[in-house]
Amino acid sequence: MPTLILIGGFFLLLVLNVPIGLCLMLSAVATLLHEGMSLSMNATNYYAACNKYLLLAIPFFIIAGNIMEKAQISTRLIDFFKSLVGHKKGGLAMVCVIVSCFFAAISGSGPATVAALGAIVIPAMITSGYRKDQASALMATGGAIGSIIPPSITFVLYGSITGTSIGSLFMSGMVPGVLVGISLFYAMKFSARKQELTQLPKASGKEIWDSFKDAIWALMMPVIILGGIYTGVFTPTEAAAVSAVYGLFVGVVIYRTVNMKVLYHICIDSIRSTGQIMFICACAAVFSWALNVLGLAVAASNGLIAMAGGNKYIFLMVVNVILLIAGCLLDGSSVFLIFTSILFPAAMKLGIDPIHFGTVMVINVAIGQVTPPVGLNLYVACGIGKVSLKEISYAVIPFVLASFAVCLLVTYCPILATFLPNLLAT
Questions:
Q1: For the packed helices 236-249 and 205-230, what is the interaxial angle rounded to 10 degrees?
Q2: Nearest to 130 by CA among 73, 64, 198, 77
Q3: What CA–CA distance (Å, rounded) separates 244 from 197?
Q4: Is 57 within 8 Å of 51 (Cβ atoms)?
Q5: Which residues span the domain enclosing 406?
Q6: CA dihedral over 160, 284, 271, 144, signed as positive or negative
Q7: Whole-angstrom Cα distance, residue 330 to residue 20?
C-alpha cells in the first residue's frame, strides 16, 4: 500500500499537471501520514537538501550562462566557426554542432544553449536549404550536449547526491559529449543527403583572424573554468563563481552589451531558474527520505539487481530503458533527484564505477531533453523555428537514435568516460 500511495500518488499528481516539486512533496507526505509516521523530519530534510556547499555551483553557473547569453557571445562564436567550416558541404550543420559544444561549456544548460544559438543558427540553416523542422531538431539535440560537456548542472546534482568528485565527473563528460556532437553531424548529413544545400564562401585569413579576435573572450571561458579546476587553483564551486565574475567582466567591460537593465533581467532569470531547481531538490529529498525510511528504495534496488540476474551489463541496459522512459515524462533535474537514490546503490553493489554510472545517467537525461512530451529543448526550438511539436518530434528521431548509439557505446565501453578522470588522477 505505501508503494501505491507514494508512486501512484506522484504520477496521479503529475498527470493532473501539478508542479513536479509539489508532486514529490505531496505524495511523500500522504504516504507518511498513511503509515502514521511523524512529519517532523520533513522540514529537516527539506533544509538539509539545499544546505550543501556543492550546490552553490548551480546558481553561479546559471548566472554565468545567462550573462554570456545576454552578452551576445553566441553571435561571436557562430561567426568564428562559420569562418572556419561554413564553406564546407553541410558546413552550417557542422557550425551548429561545434558552437553547441562550446556554448555548452559556457552555459551548462541545454535549453539556454538552444535559446542563445537557435535564433541565429536555425534561420541560417533554413536559408542554406535545410528544412525548418530538421534545423530546429538539430539545434534542440545539439543544445542537449550542454548537459554532458562540463560544466554541467546535472553532474553537480549527481555529485552532490552520491558524493562523487564533481571535477572527475566534469572531465568524464568530455569524450562522450564530443562523440554525441560527431554523431549528430553525421545523422544530419544522412538526413539531408538528397537536399540541395548552398555553401558559404570560403573566408579569407583576415576574416578568420578578425572573427577569432572577437570570439577569444568567449573561447577562454571553458579554459579558465576547467583549467582552474584541474590545476587545483579553485574547486568546482569556486570555478562557478569565477565564471560568473568573468562573464560579467566580459559583458560589461569588453563587449559592453550588459548594462544595468540587462543585468536586472539576468538576475531575475537566474533567481527564477535557481529557485525552480532548488525547490525540486528540497522536495525530492523528502520523497527520497520516504522511500528509504519505508524500505522502498532498498526493495527497488534489490529488485533491479534480481531482474538483471546480478549481471551489471543487463542492469545497465535496464537503467538506460528506465531513464529514457523517465526522460519522456520528467525534466532532467527531477530524473536525477528521484532515480539516483534507487539506481546508485544497486550500481555500487554490482561494482560499477560511480563516475561511469554518472556519465551514463547524464547522457540519458540529455536525450530526455529532446523526447516528447516533456523535452524542454524541443519546445524552445519549436518557438524559434516556428514548427509544431509533431513536426519536430519526427525530425528529431535520427538525432535521438544517433545520441542513443553513443549512449550504448559509453555504457559498454566505460573507458570512454573514465579515461580522462583516471589520467588526471595519476
A1: 150
A2: 198
A3: 39
A4: no
A5: 49-425
A6: positive
A7: 8
pLDDT for 177: 87
Angle at 30 between CA 26 and CA 34, to 5 degrees: 175
Q: Which three cell numbers stand for residue 279?
A: 525547490
The predicted-structure confidence for 292-344, as pLDDT tens digits, reads as follows 777 766 677 777 778 777 788 888 988 888 888 887 777 777 777 778 888 88
Compute the distance between CA of residue 162 and CA of residue 359 in angstroms, rounded to an integer: 13
Least confident stretch, 1-15, 42-56, 213-227: 42-56
Angle, helices 397-412 vs 132-143, to 10°: value is 30
Q: The cell 551489463 sits on which residue? A: 313
Q: What residue type is 209 in one-letter code? A: W
On whether residue 420 sits in a domain, the answer given is yes
Of the pLDDT bands very low, low, confident and very high (cuts 50, 70, 90), residue 355 is very high
At 25-51, the pLDDT tens digits run 888 888 877 777 766 666 776 666 677
Q: Flag whether 10 is in a domain.
A: no
d(CA 136, CA 121): 9
Nearest to residue 72, comparing CAs of 95, 96, 103? 103
Could you give the CA distance from residue 238 to residue 146 in angstroms, rounded to a whole number? 20
Q: Does residue 151 have a cis peptide bond before it, meaning omega lies within 30 degrees of 0? A: yes
How many residues are present in the chain? 426
| Residue at 419: amino acid letter | F
Q: Within a domain: residue 1?
A: no
Rounded to an integer, what distance in angstroms lies between the CA atom of residue 63 and that of residue 266?
A: 7
CA separation for the pair 120, 3 (Å, rounded): 48
Q: What was the pLDDT predicted at 297? A: 65
pLDDT attached to residue 296: 67
Gyration radius (Cα) of the chain, Å: 21
Q: Which three cell numbers stand for residue 346?
A: 544497486
- How many domains is the chain built from? 1
Residue 80 domain flag: yes
Q: Are 60 and 241 in contact (CB under 8 A)?
A: yes
